[in-house]
Structures are given as structure tokens and as C-alpha cells.
Amino acid sequence: MESLMQLAADPTAWAALATLVVMEVVLGIDNLIFISIITNKLPDEQQARARRIGIGLALILRLALLGTVAYIVHLTQPVFEIFGKGLSWRDMILIAGGLFLLWKATKEIHHSLDPDPEEKAGGKASLGFTAAIGQILLLDLVFSIDSIITAVGMTEHVPIMVIAVLAAVTVMLVAADPLSRFIAANPTVVMLALGFLIMIGMTLIAEGFGAHVPKGYVYTAMAFSAGVEVLNILGRRARQAKRKAA
After folding, report:
1. If you average pLDDT over residues 66-86, what whole number do you get?
2. Which regions span the lipid bilayer (predicted)?
């Protein structure tokens, strides 16, 4: 308790907490975009349950990984080399996760451009509940490891990491249903979100191979694209309102 009081009185600890909360929330939103796209393909009665399970798994994985911080740090040690480039377990996990994101996003874009017969008739794309949870769990693992290693690089205080993780998961819980409804109601947003997943996947692969990509550039590009899409949505709604008024 005394160490926690000392930590609470340290201004640098508060600065680290604020920065880490922002980073964790951003990574959580990335995770949530994937969860929303996957769960929107399930029957209506299963979507909310799948989202809660997906976010719950993200919380459990992050807290479990925090309990093994000393081991997680060693995941950054090279275990073998490819073409003279040393790869660690973290690198391989990031590369595998990035490849999965690229495959999944490309597949979803293909389905959007060339729907299956049952989708053309207005039905949802077939996806089993277990398959959806399995895909969510895989990406939860990738984002959780990236999240914890990012946290370790920013602070050595586990309580700060725990608070940041809880804050990020709280934001995910609050934003899950509204974000999913917004994505489902705006088909063009689905394509934009899939484009975000491709960008995130490429970033994970680049990070895995040791090419550091400043996340500020990535998220600035995503924010700019999202802003343009918001203007498109407002423009479409204004035109629809004018047509109705006419």
C-alpha cells in the first residue's frame, strides 16, 4: 500500500499513465474494429454475446500476460535468423497476426465485392459462433502481446499497466455495440474498416521484421480517412433529406 501511495504522488507516474491509457485505448479500438466486423456476420441474437466474449477474452489475456511480464520481456530475444535477420517469438507472433489480418480483410473485401448467392438474397454470410470466437481469440492474443510489450517499454510499474488495460477494455465495452451498429448501418464504413485492418496487418508484419513504423503516422492516416468518410456520410444524408423534402 505504501508503494502505491508513493506511486500516486509521483507526477511522472501520472504522465506515464495518461500516455499509456491513450496507447492502450488506440490498440483496443483496433481490436474492436476486428471484433465488430466478425460479430456482424453472426445471427442477430448471437452478436452481442460474441462481442462480450471477445472483449472478455481480450481483458483476460492482457491481465494474464501482465502476470508474466518478466517472461514476456524475453519474447523480444532473437531465437533464430532468416537472411541474417534475428527473429524473436514476439516478431513471429506479430508477423503471423499481420498475415492473418491481411488474409481476413482481403477475404472480407472479396465477399463485399462479389457476395455469395445467399448474401445476394439478403442473408448474412455464414459464420459459426465457434469459428468467430476462434478468430477473435487469435487476434486478441496478437493485440494483447503487442499491448503488453508496449506497456513494458513505457513504464516498469505493473499497477499503471493494469489501470491502463482496464481503461482500454472499459472503452471497448462502452463502444462495442454503437460501433458495431454504425458499421452495419454504413456499408462504406465496412470497406474503410477493412482497409484499416489491412494497414494494421502490414504494420504488424513490418514491426515483426524489425522495420519500425511510427504509430503516429498510421493513426493519423486512419483518422484522416475516417474524417473524409464522415463528410461523405453527412453529404449522403443531406442529399437524402433534400430528396425527401422535394
Report:
1. 73
2. 12-34, 55-75, 87-106, 127-152, 158-176, 188-210, 216-234
